[in-house]
């Protein structure tokens, strides 16, 4: 959650920061898991002494798992920010429409390959999906059903390759930015339902936890 939020709202987040933030968070989470389940606690009401060392009682026994998740979120956030700041940033031309503040940017995004070199052979993700990927028939049929349920255009609905090739990179970038425009009515419906769901979820977690 920490890395996801930073990646969307903070353009300075880079791969190294995200990686080490996740790895440190995972290591600390696994450490607590191992310590917590290394000791067999006596049954409630048995009167037997707690076999755990005092430091384990303090750092694990007295820290609720929801409180620990908040602590772990802060640690992951701090590590991701720190590592991102001491390592080279991602140039802005690679981030158009990939962050919240640039989601409607109409500038052409440069594609960044894994080794950091511009890969001109790989099409940008702003196109209609011209990459021809062979899929098993069952998987392809399932994808077709899911696309229809989610109102996503299928390959047969996409423009012919001749038309796609005539669309400039600037036009593709503009269309990708305009794609995010929402109908105000349904936008409000979704937002109101999201608030209701979050409120109910927070209440249920807080009440039963």
From TrEMBL:
Membrane topology per record: Multi-pass membrane protein
Keyword Membrane: yes
GO cellular component: plasma membrane
InterPro entries cross-referenced by the UniProt entry: Na/Glc_symporter_sf, Na/solute_symporter, Na/solute_symporter_CS
PROSITE patterns in UniProt: NA_SOLUT_SYMP_2, NA_SOLUT_SYMP_3
Main location: membrane
Keywords: Membrane, Transmembrane, Transmembrane helix
Single Gene Ontology MF annotation: D-glucose:sodium symporter activity
Residue intervals passing through the bilayer: 19-42, 63-86, 189-208
Origin: domain of life: Eukaryota
Location relative to the cell: Membrane
Protein family per UniProt: Belongs to the sodium:solute symporter (SSF) (TC 2.A.21) family.
PANTHER family documented for this protein: SODIUM_GLUCOSE COTRANSPORTER 4, SOLUTE CARRIER FAMILY 5
The protein's name in its UniProt record: Sodium/myo-inositol cotransporter 2-like
Lineage: Eukaryota, Metazoa, Ecdysozoa, Arthropoda, Crustacea
């Amino acid at each position: 959650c920490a890395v996801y939020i930073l990646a969307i709202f903070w353009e300075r987040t880079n791969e190294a920061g995200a990686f080490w933030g996740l790895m440190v968070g995972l290591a600390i989470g696994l450490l607590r898991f191992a310590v917590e389940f290394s000791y067999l606690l006596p049954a409630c009401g048995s009167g037997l002494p707690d076999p755990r060392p005092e430091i384990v009682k303090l750092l694990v026994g007295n820290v609720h798992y929801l409180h620990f998740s908040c602590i772990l979120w802060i640690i992951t956030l701090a590590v991701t920010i720190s590592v991102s700041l001491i390592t080279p940033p991602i140039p802005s031309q690679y981030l158009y429409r990939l962050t919240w503040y640039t989601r409607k940017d109409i500038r052409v995004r440069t594609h960044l390959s894994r080794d950091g070199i511009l890969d001109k052979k790989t099409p940008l993700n702003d196109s209609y999906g011209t990459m021809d990927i062979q899929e098993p028939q069952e998987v392809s049929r399932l994808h077709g059903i899911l696309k229809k349920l989610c109102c996503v255009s299928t390959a047969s609905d996409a423009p012919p390759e001749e038309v796609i090739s005539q669309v400039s990179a600037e036009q593709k970038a503009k269309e990708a930015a305009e794609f995010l425009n929402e109908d105000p009515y349904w936008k409000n419906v979704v937002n109101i339902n999201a608030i209701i769901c979050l409120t109910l979820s927070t209440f249920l977690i807080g009440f039963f936890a």
